[in-house]
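Reopening this ticket.

The earlier resolution said the output was attached, but the attachment link was broken on my side. Pasting everything inline this time so it's all in one place.
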Amino acid sequence: VQLQASGGGLVQAGGSLRLSCAASGRPFGRYGMGWFRQAPGKEREFVAAISRRDGNTYYSDSDKGRFAISRDNAKNTLYLQMNSLKPEDTAIYYCAADTTIGLVADSKLIKAPTSYDYWGQGTQVTVSS
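Inline output:
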């Protein structure tokens, strides 16, 4: 599956952005999906994930309550609604996919970048103070 992330940009602290990730090549519904981010000099970190079957969602502790992940299988698109943005949210945001995500409710696996086989190219989010 090919993934194309979009929707990033420059926003002031407290503002909102909605990221999109368009999938193509294979049936979108076969994949559990995730969002990760990577700031300069830091490791890639988990943001949110959504399972392929039952739509269960998972969030990092720092983003829970501010971000919402969703998917539209008819449009082959994954979304990340980000509210109350903070300067520390500044990073490149990546969408990722894997057929195993959400099959087992193991948050450690779901939050690990190594659990995902397919990655989009990333979209830059910059939050100014």
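Reporter confirms the inline version is readable. Helices lie at 107-110. Residues 107-110 form the longest helix (4 residues).
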